[in-house]
Design a protein that fits this description.
With 138 residues, the protein is mainly α. It has a single domain (27-137), classed as Tetratricopeptide repeat domain (Serine Threonine Protein Phosphatase 5, Tetratricopeptide repeat, Alpha Horseshoe). Helix content is 67%, strand content 0%. It has seven helices and no strands. The radius of gyration is 16 Å and the shape is globular.
Length: 138
């Protein structure tokens, strides 16, 4: 970490003790992802399925994205599922697409900041976290 990053973390840790460099996680809770995926139509039948794993969540949101490629929420939630699986490259790609579709989505910026941080791209993580704060405080 650069000196500027340490200063930022020194400022954030007293406010957010969970924001230590240990193990970044998606700000969206896993249960929220699973319950959201339960409302996405299951690909193998015409009824609503219940998501039981992250892989199921990813596949269900992939189907939703195929049906509606402008659904920024589907990209955001699939990106969070990828992040929870540790697939940071896919998470960043999906969260970037969600931000492209809805540039005022502060939560997508925060989740992408978590993914950027997990990859060691601290400057990009700080930029995304700053944008999230700008959107939520405006």
């Amino acid at each position: 970490m650069t000196h500027a990053n340490w200063i930022l973390w020194a400022w954030l840790v007293p406010i957010f003790p969970f924001a230590t460099p240990a193990a970044p996680r998606s700000p969206i809770k896993e249960q929220e992802i699973l319950s959201r995926a339960a409302n996405v139509e299951a690909p193998h039948r015409g009824e609503f399925g219940i998501a039981t794993s992250r892989e199921t969540v990813i596949s269900q949101f992939t189907v939703e994205i195929a049906r509606n490629p402008t659904n920024s929420t589907a990209y955001e939630y699939r990106g969070c599922a990828y992040l929870m699986n540790g697939d940071t490259r896919e998470a960043i790609a999906d969260l970037t697409k969600a931000i492209d579709l809805n540039p005022t989505n502060a939560r997508a910026y925060l989740n992408r900041a978590s993914a950027q941080y997990a990859t060691g791209a601290f400057t990009k993580a700080i930029e995304d976290a700053t944008e999230c704060l700008r959107l939520t405080c405006a």
